[in-house]
Design brief:
Blueprint: E1 14-16, H1 18-25, E2 30-34, E3 40-42, H2 43-59, E4 67-71, H3 76-88, E5 91-94, H4 101-111, E6 115-118, H5 123-128, E7 134-137, H6 142-148, E8 157-159, E9 163-168, E10 178-182, H7 183-197, E11 204-207, H8 214-218, H9 221-227, E12 230-233, H10 239-247, E13 253-256, H11 258-266, E14 280-283, H12 290-298, E15 303-308, E16 315-318, H13 321-324, E17 333-334, E18 339-343, E19 356-361, H14 373-379, E20 386-394, E21 400-405, E22 410-412, E23 415-417, H15 419-427, E24 432-442, E25 446-455, H16 464-472, E26 483-486, H17 500-503
Parallel strand pairs: 2-12, 4-5, 4-6, 6-7, 11-12, 13-14, 14-15, 25-26
Antiparallel strand pairs: 1-8, 2-3, 9-10, 15-16, 16-17, 18-19, 19-20, 20-21, 22-23, 24-25
Helix pairs in contact: 1-2, 2-3, 2-6, 7-9
């Protein structure tokens, strides 16, 4: 068994100051634009404002290694703070604005920030956290404060192994943990996603997923900025705004979660919009149902399904455009700087086609969790491989298929049952919008499936008998759920993942 090697990229000890280098190479090129207001920043603007933010941090007592929190919707100022922290050696902590103060207080107690930047719409929540740190309102005084600062001279290189920002996990399986993101992880993800989708300096991508999730930062906004492209910033997902941008032929790359694709496909103008200008369509965060993939294929869209984790930076697997239509259901192959094993309960590699847990290694993998050595030890094998908790198999051609989460798998009558497989079948029913399957105790079989169904909008809910019969035509009998319950919508994380633990409450 080969041990996991260092997470560093050989020969790369540090990154140059990214915005300074881009400002030198193409100062007048547009780096980002706020889609709603049309306000834009060139790379020279972004670099200058980031340097002034670094000065602001220092005047407020922020020292290298200190944490700086931010609580707001997507906006250009987030990126000014991200790069300003890099220049000053501080660590940015994006916070989930959907969380109530009592949950955020636990996160702040964990990371102990010096400052909390927030928007006006988050002012009440930020006020409830005032005992933790000083606050700065991004909509009241921030601009004048930044403008009044001197740019100063800041460090010109960023050590690869040093933390840049923390992303707290969503907590769907337990207490949120702060995943450490290093500068080295940023360059590894840039290589992994950049080579996979051919990120170019002429690209325009859309930043609408929340920046307190890894996809909001890294798919594809930060890699596009590193390459010198343009990032359009939306303060959140707005299907009308996205369709309008497509109609204006403004996007070259696009990444969304399955719920985003579902909303686009339901929009009346999406199917008539010009789509051929989008060079790459990516999807991740949750399994893309086959039905959605087939609907996209009918429109000529090659949606490249992928899989990664907050802890992997996130890019790990991604299907190529050439394989997107022929291998629906696969997450493709490991990307350039990613190493993967599939192992059994004993930690031994499984045979081709067999299901096991996915392990990761490589420079894109986090060094661990902030202030939580116990969780860090539990996340890695003794020889340094990251345990994903995801179950997958590799086919004869080297393509990977994720079958579900280890913690979600259940045993019915001695047989392993993977909810993701059942959910994919249920989603193919014409009256089912989305499905979630969880185990339920059973006197004879130990556990059986319990399915929660969100019907298609405007469609009559199918009967339990109809759904069971539909499942039996596609699944072995032991996989067919024994009960079906209908819900108007699912509880979700901000990244669109269904919070199954809340369904059974």
């Amino acid at each position: 068994m080969e041990p996991a090697r260092s997470r560093r990229i050989e020969g790369i000890e540090s990154l140059p100051d990214i915005t300074a280098r881009r400002a030198d190479l193409a100062p007048g090129r547009i780096a980002m634009e706020e889609a709603a207001s049309g306000r834009s920043l060139t790379y020279a603007d972004l670099d200058g404002r980031a340097a002034r933010v670094a000065s602001l941090l220092r005047t407020r007592g922020v020292l290298p290694g200190d944490r700086v929190a931010i609580l707001c919707r997507n906006r250009a100022a987030f990126w000014e703070l991200l790069f300003g922290c890099a220049k000053a050696g501080a660590i940015l902590v994006p916070l989930n604005w959907r969380m109530p103060p009592i949950e955020l207080d636990l996160l702040l107690a964990d990371c102990m920030p010096r400052l909390l930047f927030h928007g006006t719409s988050e002012a009440e929540t930020a006020g409830a956290l005032r005992h933790r740190c000083e606050r700065v309102d991004l909509d009241s005084g921030y601009e004048s404060i930044v403008d009044a600062m001197a740019a100063g001279c800041w460090r010109g290189s960023w050590p690869a192994g040093e933390p840049w920002y923390l992303i707290y996990t969503s907590g769907t399986t337990g207490r949120p943990k702060g995943v450490i993101y290093t500068y080295g992880m940023a360059i590894a993800n840039f290589v992994n996603i950049g080579t996979a989708i051919d990120v170019a300096g002429s690209d325009t991508t859309l930043h609408f997923l929340p920046h307190f999730h890894t996809a909001g930062i890294n798919l594809h906004a930060l890699p596009t900025l590193m390459q010198g492209g343009r990032v359009l910033v939306l303060d959140g997902f707005d299907v009308e705004a996205v369709v309008r941008l497509l109609e204006q032929r403004r996007l070259d790359t696009f990444f969304g979660v399955p719920t985003v694709y579902h909303a686009l496909l339901e929009h009346p103008r999406f199917t008539r919009a010009p789509l051929d200008h989008v060079r790459h369509w990516g999807c991740g965060g949750a399994p893309l149902p086959d039905r959605l993939a087939l609907r996209c294929r009918a429109l000529g869209i090659r949606v490249c399904n992928g899989m990664g984790m907050t802890e992997t930076g996130p890019t790990a697997f991604l299907a190529s455009p050439e394989d997107a239509w022929e291998r629906i259901g696969s997450v493709g192959k490991p990307q350039l700087l990613v190493r993967v094993r599939i192992v059994d309960e004993a930690g031994e590699d499984v045979a081709e086609g067999e299901v096991g847990e996915v392990l990761f290694a490589g420079p894109g993998v986090t060094p661990g969790y902030w202030n939580d050595p116990e969780a860090t030890r539990a996340a890695f094998t003794d020889d340094g491989w990251l345990r994903s908790g995801d179950l997958a198999r590799r086919d004869a051609d080297g393509f990977y298929h994720v079958v579900g989460r280890r913690k979600e798998m259940f045993i019915s009558g001695g047989e392993n049952v993977y909810p993701a497989e059942i959910e994919n079948v249920l989603a193919a029913h014409p009256a089912v919008g989305e499905a979630a399957v969880v185990p339920a105790p059973h006197e004879r079989w130990g556990e059986v499936g319990r399915a929660f169904i969100q019907p298609v909008a405007g469609a009559a809910a199918p009967s339990a008998e109809e759904l069971a019969a539909f499942c039996r035509t596609h699944l072995a009998a032991y996989k067919v759920p024994r009960s079906f319950e209908f819900v108007p919508d699912f509880p979700r994380t901000a990244a669109g993942k269904v919070q199954k633990h809340l369904l059974c409450g």
